[in-house]
Amino acid sequence: MNTIQIDHLSKRYRGQSRPALNDVSLTISAGMFGLLGKNGAGKSTLMRILTTLDQATTGTVQLCGIPITQRAAVRNQVGYLPQNFGFYPNMTVRDALTYLAILAHVPPRSQHRRINALLAQVNLTDQACTKVKALSGGMRQRLGIAQALVNQPKVLIVDEPTAGLDPEERIRFRNLLTEFAQDRIVLLSTHIVSDIEATTNRIGVLNQGRLLFTGTTAQLQAQATGHVFTRTLPLAELSDYKSRYEISEQVVQGNTAHIRFLATAGIPGANVVAPTLEEAYLYLQSRQTRQEVRQ
Ligand SMILES: Nc1ncnc2c1ncn2[C@@H]1O[C@H](COP(=O)(O)OP(=O)(O)OP(=O)(O)O)[C@@H](O)[C@H]1O
Question: What Pfam family does this protein match (any one) (predicted)?
Fold first, then answer.
């Protein structure tokens, strides 16, 4: 029963006219799963419901077979790294983890061993005596993972974890997540497509509270096949293209522009190219917008 089963989940915050989540149904099985969506799509709301920090308005969730309403039991199975994670700045890394281990009821005789293992896993052994406030952004996020794993959860939920990390730390952090996904569910929420590309091929896309897509990255890319084009054109024509099409890439050299763009049908003089995952994601979003305009 190593799955998260979400059925017809909706959430409407008090005083808001539009629901933050709108009839979301989704099954997430073991391994890494990426949840993509732009700002305000509802990702954090879903994460907070799955971690029992917030409650749905309607719908049900079963996490590893446990109904989400059994909050204490669910919390034993879930580790969470929230957005903007930051805690106990004046404690050392070891003291902060020890404190959390106590809160998580880790037996005193296992605490030291568990914390040493976690520090090694997230590569922070050398920083055990460093104060949290002195860690770099990447180290802090790795400490965030360690704190989420203190109670050895079956499910790890991470919300926009790579924002603000430099490329090296971002890669390191993503590799860490894929390692952890080998024997548990890791749910990664992000609006950064390259984070998904580098870690998983199983995704869901949220937009304005609705699940627009769930499947593999290849399936998403297949939906955009035939809708991404490349063209070299005089720089003077670029603004006209920009007003008509979604440009996914542009390189300007002198008076010439090389562009990749999205269009619903073939364009004379433009060549069809295979969509990248980012372009497939943009195509999905723009198709949704066109449908809304038509309605
Ligand atoms: N506590 C709250 N009270 C009222 N509205 C909220 C609350 N939290 C979120 N919302 C609204 O719910 C919608 C979804 O927000 P949510 O934070 O879940 O999106 P998100 O995809 O995580 O976006 P971001 O990447 O910006 O965090 C937004 O319209 C947001 O304004």
Answer: ABC_tran
- Domain check: are 151 and 263 in the same one? no
How many domains, the chain?
2
Q: Which atom of ligand 1 is nearest to the CA of 206?
A: 21
DSSP 8-class letter at 261 = E
Q: Please tell me the pTM assigned to this model.
A: 0.89
Is the distance from CB of 188 to CB of 141 less than 8 angstroms? no
Residue 28 Cα to ligand 1 midpoint, Å, equals: 22
**22 in contact with ligand 1, CB cutoff 6 A:** no
* Predicted local distance difference test score (pLDDT) of residue 266: 77
Tell me how far the alpha carbon of residue 3 lies from the centroid of ligand 1, in angstroms: 25
Name the closest-CA residue to atom 8, ligand 1.
45
The residues, ordered by sequence, that sit 6+ positions from 43 with a Cβ below 8 Å of its Cβ are: 35, 37, 159, 160, 189, 190, 191, 206
User: What's the length of the chain?
Assistant: 295
Pick the last residue of a domain from 158, 192, 214: 214
The minimum-distance atom of ligand 1 relative to the CA of 83 is 27
Q: Which residue ranges of the chain lie beneath pLDDT 70?
A: 1, 290-295
Q: Which domain holds residue 162?
A: 3-214
Residue nearest ligand 1's atom 26 by CA: 39
Amino acid sitting at position 208: Q
- Within the chain, strands assigned E span 3-11, 21-29, 31-36, 58-63, 66-67, 78-81, 155-159, 185-190, 202-207, 210-216, 228-234, 246-253, 256-262, 271-272
pLDDT digits (tens, 9 = 90+) for 103-133: 888 898 989 999 999 999 888 999 999 999 9
Burial 129-151 (b: 16+ CB within 10 A, else e): eeebeebeebbbbbbbbbbbbbb
Q: Which residue's CA is the closest to the ligand 1 atom numbered 29?
A: 40
